[in-house]
Write a structure and sequence with these properties.
The chain is mainly α. It is 84% helix and 0% strand.
């Protein structure tokens, strides 16, 4: 059954790649805009061979790791606190609702102005981008915990902290993991956006630099690598979720 699912999931991508290759070879698709998969694969091998691709991947992954870790920590912390306390929610709700709709790309020039074009500005951009989906899902998860669970905890005379850590947080974990999965996507969007504007290394820089040098194959290599890395990170988070939430 699992093998059948894998085969079915691969049919459409394989067909699209074959049609793309045929279209490029026959001239139906402009190769200067859409290089054939064969040319992209050659560019992939070349950039892997000279070490440029691995170096840019490492730079982007490091930035994503640091920014996502900070965004996840702050998002879960803020979501839990605001979900538990109506007073805290009331105090911060206006500020949060004003800041939340600001596009992540709008923060890039602001942070560059404040702290320069170094690593901290990029990490903070990623932190902001990943913070919001994690915070919102954590907050909703805490607020929507079934009252029956809390009533049972009260019946067993659980203390406040015990109720939070043994009842409310486990019940909110499905929502929190949803936020973590969405947050990693936002983290990649943020890092690529920051690297496109101000960076000398990273996958976003590789895309921008390849465009300036009219090397579309290298540009597509970076784009596809971003998608593949994002896919595998999402798979890892899902596996951790399944492992931790067997009861769900």
């Amino acid at each position: 059954m699992r093998g059948k699912k894998i085969i079915l999931s691969l049919i459409l991508p394989v067909v699209l790649v074959i049609l793309w290759e045929i279209g490029g070879r026959t001239g139906s698709i402009n190769p200067s805009l859409f290089p054939t998969p064969g040319r992209i694969f050659q560019a992939f091998l070349k950039t892997m061979g000279n070490g440029k691709l691995e170096a840019n991947i490492f730079v982007s992954l490091r930035r994503v790791f640091l920014g996502y870790l900070a965004g996840a920590f702050l998002g879960i912390l803020a979501g839990v606190i605001m979900g538990l306390s109506e007073t805290v929610h009331t105090v911060f709700s206006v500020i949060f609702e004003v800041l939340r709709p600001i596009p992540i790309m709008a923060w890039v020039p602001v942070l560059i102005l404040w702290i320069g074009i170094g690593e901290p500005s990029k990490v903070i951009v990623i932190m902001i981008g990943s913070f919001w989906p994690i915070f919102l899902n954590t907050y909703d998860g805490i607020r929507n915990v079934d009252r029956k669970y809390i009533e049972v905890a009260q019946i067993f005379r659980k203390k406040r902290l015990q109720t939070i850590f043994e009842v409310m947080l486990p019940a909110a974990l499905p929502s929190i993991f949803t936020g973590l999965r969405v947050g990693i996507g936002s983290a990649w969007v943020s890092v690529i956006g920051a690297e496109l504007i101000a960076a000398s290394a990273g996958l976003g820089f590789m895309i921008s630099y390849s465009r300036e040098l009219a090397q579309p194959a290298n540009m597509y290599v970076a784009v596809l690598v971003i998608g593949i890395i994002g896919y595998f990170i999402n798979v890892i988070i899902k596996k951790v979720e399944v492992k931790l939430l067997k009861w769900n």
